[in-house]
Specification:
This protein is α/β, with parallel strands linked by helices. It is about 50% helix and about 10% strand. The chain has a six-stranded mixed beta sheet, sandwiched between helices.
Length: about 290
Amino acid sequence: MSAISTLPVPAIGDDPQGLKELGRQLEEARRKAGVSQEEFGRALGFSQSTTSRILNGTYPHMSPRQRRTAEWVAAMANDGHAMETAPYLTLEQSASSLRDWEPTVVPGLLQTAEYARHVLAAADPGLLPADLDQAVALRLKRQEIWARESPPPPVFAAIISEAALVRLVGTPEIMRGQLGHLLSMTEQHPGLISVQVLPFDAGASVGLLAPFVLASFPDSDQKDAAFLDDTLNGTTTEAHGTVAKLRVLFDALGREAENRAGSIRMIREAEARWTRRISDGGNPGSAATATA
């Protein structure tokens, strides 16, 4: 199945007729997805009573983010995608800036197709080949934000653990290609994309935290939000206290990580080690050259 064919756009009015039309589209998406109203509400991030009113077209107080989430859920369900990621995709597709902490892998917005395939397959071992193809296609579709014109692409600041440079994902060739792509993206978009590496010798630090993303928006009426990743689907929140604490933690990570020049050097060195491992025939016996 293809990736989302078209990104949802707010083409439906906010008047009573528009709310009913949005509710109708969402109800159609729910039925097509074959999920209960309760399950659908969880994908939206709403309570069951709120979900019921939205589907009936009688809920008049949707925030811009709620509305955008609803549009994403409808589009994803109609294209056959899992809806649980819609709340985060809502942030990603409309944010003016994203700050991403990744302790184990390269961020999804900077992954190659081959690397993404192995990451997604490992995260869900029971995934059927067709569903895996679909998941990879969606991940690549998300990366189209780097070429978008309206709104402009987000300023993206990523901090990754050194583990993402040395952990074998797929094959040494895939790792070399992924690190080369990471370097290429930072070189092509120097004012837009930055990557810092948190080295292992940072020790017991904030870097022991699970992944999270902070999103800010151009609209002053839109609250900053955060996505807290976990083993399953993660949680999206606008809670002021949570977002504020994550800002402090991200700043601490930035202080502990290598600066831009040092991080680029570490990525280049890791890329060279994977190249040497390929020359050695990918022999795990030479792992020292790949993980030193």
